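Margin note: ligand = iron/sulfur cluster.
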Amino acid sequence: MNKTLEICEKFYKTKDLSFEDFKYLMDLEDYADLNTYARSLAVKNFGRKIYIRGLIEISTYCKNNCFYCGLRASNKNIERTRLSKEEILSRVAHANSLGIKTIVLQGGEDDFYSLDFLEDLIGEIEDKYDLALTLSLGERSFEDLEALKKLGANRYLLRHETSSRDHYYKLHPRSMDFDNRIKSLFKLKDLGYQTGCGMMVGSPFQTREDLYRDLQFILKLQPQMVGLGPFIPHHDTPFKDYPAGNLDDVLKILSIVRIAKENVLLPATTALGSIDDSGREKGILAGCNVLMPNIGDEKLRQNYKLYDNKIGTQVENSDDFLDLEEKLKKIGYEISLDRGDYKEEGKYV
Ligand code: SAH
Ligand code: SF4
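Resulting structure:
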């Protein structure tokens, strides 16, 4: 067994990866063995099936000012729009008609979506459809999170962005609160949400130590989902001149996360597809098992630019599904329209 496989095997068995071994993996020039090892764990847990989550972006308004994101409040150059309840419901109906059983409502932190609004919306979705509902609406009060869970929201995506406090405040203004972000994630888990954390790879000022800390955080939180992709600069943000995260680094860390938690739901993100034409396929071959095509509103999508050169992943009709199916088939995988709830080890297939 070569050294890469030895490290993978030891990490898989002990869930303990020293910083030296982490660095060894991250510095590999040829990391095919790392990807293959992780991929075989994904196949063991999920077969060659890729879960589809339908992403509905609901608002380009955001009260926050993350230095990296095009939706930040201080960016005066984007059109702010949001979907009404009826518009969201119409996109949910669309998802349902395509056979999609998981939807993700994502947006900037927009106070327009009060608890009342969301209660109403989720109530209607729950009445009409049998869907797994994921929210990705940023930080909300613990009372809100509890109420939304009771109503039927089952999953929540809230990337921690970085698990190093110093680094957090290089990416966010002081008005944002690192401790609250981390506490929110533990709260989401306590409340029984299938919880997703995650980070950008190659965000400005990120060190190898920071990424290693992110891995330790994932091991500690034991999230059901991890969303990670490259940082990509946006031309109207303070980070416009920083380079995008590196494809190789993303593919390595995806594999490391798969080994850390073999049954975690791990999307090959749009950002990964945006830095490389076949980035999402490469992500799957590195151990990912989820895709999140956009099924939202076309006009809002035009303005929902977190970063530059974001690819469109719109699934509007069954032809688009066939295209996606075709792409997956080429690498030996197929779409699964199952709800794909998180399950304990070994119980997916
Ligand atoms: N407002 C919510 C959800 C929308 S943003 C929130 O912040 O949680 C969703 C994710 O997009 C963020 O968590 C962040 O990791 C990612 N993102 C934002 N700007 C980005 C950029 N410039 N490059 C790559 N990912 C970015
Ligand atoms: Fe708002 Fe989320 Fe963008 Fe931060 S990352 S500015 S919270 S949309």
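Residues 62, 64, 66, 69, 71-72, 108-109, 138, 306 surround iron/sulfur cluster (ligand 2) (CB under 6 Å).
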